């Protein structure tokens, strides 16, 4: 089956620093990768959609200068939270979409818990 | 506006009882709907999609365009069905909208 990994799984950083989260599709090429943010007891909020080699498309209300997304290859996308603040603490989940047989499905990573102190 | 609504945050049923997780959507285009499941300490994974018209782990979901609903059903709940279930709408432009999720607890 399709596997998507995220690294790190947990990260604690100080306010004002930047942190990078990697999302990799391990056994398939992802045409598109998505970044979500999950708030406690709330739904997944789509932050941005990225395609390899092109700029990410950000959802309304998501600051592109704060949440930098780089989709370097068909198997790797990174999310960098710049100048992190405590309110950025959240669970960030990526997903990758690619062809698996005849189905174009979205496969999720395990998520990254970010805590900003 | 496009929206996915899951009215129940928590649904508790006894083992062997029927279960229905509600999902309503708002979308003017042709909807593509999914159910995702997240078991404890596991990642989110696709359970089923409406275009497949399949039954996965005994669950089925029928798209009702008249009622704009895509409720998830299972005739006999099992304890291992306890999980968080999310209904999602694909707008067809690589954009997914998720509902707030329903936590299903199947009691022994």
How far is the first residue's CA from the last residue's CA of chain B? 40 Å
Number of helices, where a helix is a run of at least 4 consecutive DSSP H or I residues of chain A: 0
Share in β-strands of chain B: 35-45%
Instruction: Please give the number of β-strands of chain B.
Output: 11
Descriptive account of the structure:
The complex is a heterodimer of chains A (117) and B (108). Chain A has 117 residues and is an all-beta fold. Chain A has no helices and 11 strands. In chain A, strands 2, 4, 5, 6, 9, 10 and 11 form a 7-stranded mixed beta sheet that branches. In chain A, strand 9 and strand 10 form a beta hairpin. Chain B is globular and about 40 Å long. In chain B, strands 2, 5, 6, 9, 10 and 11 form a 6-stranded mixed beta sheet that branches. Helix content of chain B is 0%, strand content 44%. The mean pLDDT of chain B is 92. With 108 residues, chain B is an all-beta fold. The interface between A and B is medium-sized, with 22 and 15 residues.
Blueprint of the fold:
The complex is a heterodimer of chains A (117) and B (108).
Chain A: E1 4-7, E2 10-13, E3 19-25, E4 32-38, E5 44-51, E6 57-58, E7 67-73, E8 76-81, E9 90-100, E10 103-108, E11 112-116
Parallel strand pairs in A: 2-11
Antiparallel strand pairs in A: 1-3, 3-8, 4-5, 4-9, 5-6, 7-8, 9-10, 9-11
Chain B: E1 3-5, E2 10-14, E3 19-21, E4 24-26, E5 32-38, E6 45-49, E7 60-61, E8 72-74, E9 83-90, E10 96-98, E11 102-107
Parallel strand pairs in B: 2-11
Antiparallel strand pairs in B: 1-4, 3-8, 5-6, 5-9, 7-8, 9-10, 9-11
What can be said about this structure in brief?
The complex is a heterodimer of chains A (117) and B (108). With 117 residues, chain A is an all-beta fold.
List keywords for this structure.
heterodimer; A: 117 residues; mainly beta; 7-stranded mixed β-sheet; 4-stranded antiparallel β-sheet; B: 108 residues; 6-stranded mixed β-sheet; 3-stranded antiparallel β-sheet; 11 strands
């Amino acid at each position: 089956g399709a596997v998507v990994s995220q690294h790190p799984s947990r990260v604690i950083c100080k306010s004002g620093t930047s942190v990078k989260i990697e999302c990799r599709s391990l056994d398939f090429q992802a045409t598109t990768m998505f970044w979500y943010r999950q708030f406690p007891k709330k739904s997944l909020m789509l932050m941005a959609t990225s395609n390899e080699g092109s700029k990410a498309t950000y959802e309304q209300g998501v600051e592109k200068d704060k949440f930098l997304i780089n989709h370097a290859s068909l198997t790797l996308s990174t999310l960098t939270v710049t100048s992190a603040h405590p309110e950025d603490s959240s669970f960030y989940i990526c997903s990758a979409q690619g062809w698996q047989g005849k189905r174009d499905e979205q496969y999720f990573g395990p998520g990254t818990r970010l805590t900003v102190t | 506006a496009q929206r996915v609504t899951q009215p129940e945050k928590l649904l508790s049923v006894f083992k062997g009882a029927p279960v229905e997780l509600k999902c309503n959507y708002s979308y003017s285009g042709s909807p593509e709907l999914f159910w995702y499941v997240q078991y404890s300490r596991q990642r989110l994974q696709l359970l089923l999609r409406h275009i497949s018209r399949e039954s996965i782990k005994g669950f089925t979901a029928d798209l009702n365009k008249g009622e704009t609903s895509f409720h998830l059903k299972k005739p006999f709940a099992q304890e291992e069905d306890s999980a968080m279930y999310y209904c999602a709408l694909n707008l067809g432009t690589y954009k997914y909208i998720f509902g707030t999720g329903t936590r299903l607890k199947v009691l022994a």
